[in-house]
Amino acid sequence: MRRLVFALATWTLALGWSVGLAVAEKAYGPGVSDSEIKLGANAPYSGPASIYASFPKTMIAYFAMLNEKGGINGRKVDFITRDDAYSPPKTMEVTRSLVENDNVLAIMGPFGTPTNAAIQKYLNSSGVPQLLVQSGGTRWNDPKQFPWTTPYSPTYFNESKIIARYILQNKADAKIGVLMQADDIGKDFLGGLKDGLGGKASMIVMEAPYQSTEPTIDSQIVNLKASGADTLLIAAQNKFASMAIRKIHELGWKPLIFLGSTANSISGVLMPAGLEASSGILTTTSYKTPNDPVWANDKGVADYLAFMAKYLPGQDPNDVIAVTGYTTVQLGAIILQRCGDNLTRDNVLKQATNLKGIELPMLLPGISIQTTPDDYAAITERQFARFDGKTWVLFGNILGVGLGKD
Predict the structure, then answer these.
(1) 394 pairs with which residues across the strands?
(2) Segment 103-137, tens digit of pLDDT
(3) φ, ψ for residue 213, nearest 5 deg
(4) How many C-beta atoms surround the C-beta of residue 19 within 10 A?
(5) What is the pLDDT at residue 233?
(6) Beta bridge pairs of residue 234
(7) How far apart are CA 324 and CA 362, in angstroms?
């Protein structure tokens, strides 16, 4: 009897220790409970970049879908987005409110280059994850100086290096003009182009910067045409890229046009510019285009289209902005799922910077997510595509591996 009592006591103590350990293994940061994970982000619902509003809207819809299915590890996600009008001072204001008033665990999928630049130091000094930044600036992949900032988008620098290589191989006598937003977007595109051209950087005959507050860029296009350029890189946001393509067509100018991935939306750029004016334009992409017949029987595309039809019925599913939002939020959900019950800011960052071979359904075959604590770059590869008047048609091979994760 004494042995039985001792055994029961020992078992009870062991059970109590294991239950205590299980409870102790739960670790929560701000905005987390047994039932909820609170996240935040700035969003361009108004202002010069409002065409990109479908990005946060897609993220919100995806989390709503997950919440209907029980959330992530049993916790519902409360994803709070605030309009910053693509204005850096406003971005700082809404981000402070999300962190200090709403107590979000992390900022996830924050949009824009100048807007993210405005909050980068604040979030890093506060130890708040700035996850999956929606911008291709090289500054987001700097683990030593900004350890709490992780990029999502492929870099503009690497993208224009790929374009430079294409020009050297296919139009070695090109005279190149560059229309560029006067911030880190233009700086990185131009830097990568020059780096890719190497000793032939003199092929660039004109650089035409513009401010995102300008009402028109007609004068920049007229000057680029007058420079004698027969090849043009458009390193611009949607609104300005569309204006540029339309003005080029009106002038009867026929340069070979490379459209940066910042603005290769069919519905947001090419349709407003005119499908005829846009035909023949080249771009690079990491994503499947839903209405490309090559993906007619692709399960990932079918699932995406079903999601869009149910949760965002008024949104064009072929818009690459929505595709980007869908893929970004899928990766964000994977990071949170991998955190398990250790939902601290430290562990969120750890999971985000230790991703190996993550294949997402709307990424092109052969492209996967790879991050390490020393190199945060998530996506580095792209493929060329040509607009045929209806959709982007892929050609060539997946590119970028040999260029490194710039």
Answers:
(1) 385
(2) 999 999 999 999 999 999 999 999 999 999 999 99
(3) -95, -5
(4) 10
(5) 98
(6) 179, 259
(7) 9
How many other C-beta atoms lie within 10 A of the C-beta of residue 47? 18
User: Residue ranges of the domains in the chain?
Assistant: 36-154+296-375, 156-285+385-403
Alpha-carbon span 296 to 313, nearest angstrom: 20
Write down the mean pLDDT value for the chain.
92
Q: SS3 of 72, please?
A: strand
Per-position b or e across 120-145, b if 16+ CB within 10 A of its CB: beebbeeebbbbbbbbbbbbbbebee
Alpha carbons 276 and 270: distance in angstroms, whole number: 9
Domain 36-154+296-375 top-level CATH class: alpha beta
Residue 338 near residue 356 (C-beta atoms within 8 A): no
For 156-285+385-403, CATH number? Answer: 3.40.50.2300
Q: How far apart are CA 280 and CA 256, in angstroms?
A: 8
How far from chain centre, in Å, is Cα 344? Answer: 24
Phi, psi of 311 (to 5 degrees): -105, -20
At residue 155, the pLDDT reads 93
Residue 261 CA to its chain's centroid (Å): 10
Q: Return all residues near 19 (Cβ < 8 A) that are at least 6 apart.
A: none
Q: Positive or negative, the Cα torsion across 189, 148, 358, 355?
A: positive
Nearest alpha carbon to residue 113 among 260, 262, 233:
262
Q: What is the pLDDT of residues 130-189, one digit of tens each?
A: 999 999 999 999 999 999 999 999 899 999 999 999 999 999 999 999 999 999 999 999
Distance CA 5, CA 151 (A): 58
Does the structure show a pLDDT above 90 at 12? no
The DSSP line for 73-141 is TTBEEEEEEEE-TT-HHHHHHHHHHHHHTS--SEEES-B-HHHHHHHHHHHHHHT--EEEEBS--GGG-
Residue with tokens 């939002």: 325
Burial class (CB in 10 A: 0-12, 13-18, 19+), 20: exposed
Would strands 392-399 and 382-387 be described as parallel, antiparallel, or unpaired? Answer: antiparallel
Domains 36-154+296-375 and 156-285+385-403 in one fold:
yes
